[in-house]
Amino acid sequence: MEIPKEEYDEFVVNTFLNNVYLLQLNSELKTREIKSPAVSVELKEEVKLSGDRFYVQITMVLRVRSGKKIPLKMKVTYELEYITSVTDAPFEFYEEYAKTSSRLHIWPYFREIVSNTTLKMGVPPLFLPVIPFNL
């Protein structure tokens, strides 16, 4: 289904982030010796509707590659709670919102937890880009 721009824009303007919850944080460090790290992040969203609210659960998996090995992996799941006054929107609007706006809303939280957790692991803290161009 192609999303009508004007209707979707109205949905976006009338939707507000109410809360952010951390549901899961798993990290695995195999070695502190990480040379020339290459970082990748995978995301997966799930949308749940509930009256004037909807919830987007986002799971983010960060992998740090050093050569052929992956010495560090983190899996973080957040739940974002939104309030919207547009209650008759098609489900595709919520899915599109999760893939665009929700990803941008959660990114600063993810950046913070990655840098703080890596610092506490005794490895140089990872600082992800401020704006996630590849999401």
Report on this model:
- The chain is an alpha+beta fold.
- It has one domain (5-120): Bacterial Protein-export protein SecB.
- It contains 3 helices and 4 strands, in the order H-E-E-E-E-H-H.
- The protein has helices at 5-13, 91-99, 101-120, and strands at 15-29, 38-50, 53-66, 69-84.
- It has a 4-stranded antiparallel sheet.
- The longest helix has 20 residues, at 101-120.
- The model has no long low-confidence stretch (mean pLDDT 91).
Distance between the termini: 22 Å
Order of helices and strands: HEEEEHH
**Could you say which structural class the secondary elements and strand pairing correspond to?**
alpha+beta
CATH architecture: Roll
At the fold tier of CATH, the topology name is: Bacterial Protein-export protein SecB
Supply the number of helical segments.
Answer: 3
Radius of gyration: 17 Å
Mean pLDDT figure: 91
Give the low-confidence spans.
none
Give the CATH level 1 class: Alpha Beta
How would the global form be characterised?
A: elongated
Helix content: 25-40%
Q: What proportion strand?
A: 35-45%
Biggest beta sheet attributes: 4 strands, antiparallel
Please list the strands of the largest sheet in the order they lie side by side: 1-4-3-2
Produce the secondary structure layout.
Elements: H1 5-13, E1 15-29, E2 38-50, E3 53-66, E4 69-84, H2 91-99, H3 101-120
Antiparallel strand pairs: 1-4, 2-3, 3-4
Write a compact overview of the structure shown.
The protein has 135 residues and is α+β, with helices and mostly antiparallel strands. It contains three helices and four strands.
